[in-house]
Amino acid sequence: MAVVVITGAARGMGRAYADAFLARGDQVVGLDRSWADVPPLERALCLTCDVTDSASIEAARHATLEHHSRVDVLVNNAALRQRDLFPPHGAAAVLDTTDEQWQRMFDVNVVGVLRVIRQFAQSMFAQRAGSIVNIASGGAVGVKLAEGIWCGRNPGFRNEPYDASKAALTNMTFFLAEELRPHNIAVNAVFPAGTRTTGSDEMVAGRNALGIHVAGLLVPEHVVPVVLHLANQDATGETGKAFDAVQWNIEHGLGGAEQWRVDAQQLEPQ
């Protein structure tokens, strides 16, 4: 039975991870800026925490250790999304963005993750074991055209500064994995596909109106299998890697994107 800390656990993918870990018998600590207007996460320790506030993170760590005495797994899921900066569609030309918007995005998606790791990895250092899973994005990586030549995966999607922040998070993951290998702590990244969470329906409609096509979104649960797998790792297993959730599901007999796709018109907002 592992003690699993999940940021952004109240809704969307974070909620799906929390439910899955609870279902397999783990102890879950859910961190989120707000637990208002969501069903209770039963059998979990739910704490209010802002990843941009070091004091808030430290308080959450103290509460976690008072309750459970250790941390085995950390899932860094909380993020500022593109549509949070540019509602409702989330599309922005790079030169139309401001310095403040870039700083805000990186403060949550990169520095915020680092703040959380600094606090919660301390328990893993003491026990010389643990797993850190950073939820990144496939838009953060390029596509190899030829030897020595790359291009963007989808540069027409107008997804900056979000994709840039996730690129930085992915790169940090690789470096951190090597630093923590001597402490037997695994560090990996996961690339979900486009996932239906709070505000997704408005985002899709807004982008379609701008002529930016959005492929069918997947249910949050499509990312759960690979996250559960990586939670079981330490530095003797999978570490320092990034995993595409859809491809991982295909390779493990769990179906491709079509199996996990959701018809947004038939569901209530999450």
The helicity comes to 40-55%
* Sheet with most strands: strand arrangement: 3-2-1-4-5-8-9
Backbone structural class:
alpha/beta
Q: What is the overall shape?
A: globular
Fourth-tier CATH superfamily name: NAD(P)-binding Rossmann-like Domain
The name CATH uses for the topology is: Rossmann fold
What letter string, H or E per element, gives the SSE order? EHEEHEHHEEEHEHHEHH
Write down the Rg.
Answer: 18 Å
Largest sheet: 7 strands, parallel
Number of helices: 9
Gross CATH architecture: 3-Layer(aba) Sandwich
Intertermini distance? 29 Å
Determine the strand fraction and express it as a percent band.
Answer: 15-25%
Chain oligomer state: single chain
How many strand segments? 9
| Unreliable stretches covering 5 or more consecutive residues | 264-270
Q: How would you characterize this protein structure?
A:
With 270 residues, the protein is α/β, with parallel strands linked by helices. It has a single domain (3-266), classed as NAD(P)-binding Rossmann-like Domain (Rossmann fold), CATH 3.40.50.720. The chain is 40% helix and 16% strand. It has helices at residues 12-23, 54-68, 82-85, 99-127, 162-180, 200-209, 224-231, 245-251, 257-260; strands at 3-7, 27-32, 44-48, 73-76, 130-135, 143-146, 149-151, 185-191, 242-244. The strands form 2 sheets. It has a 7-stranded parallel sheet with strand order 3-2-1-4-5-8-9, with helices on both faces. Strand 1, helix 1 (12-23) and strand 2 form a beta-alpha-beta unit. The longest helix has 29 residues, at 99-127. The protein is globular and about 50 Å long. 43% of the residues are buried. Mean pLDDT is 93; it is low at 264-270.
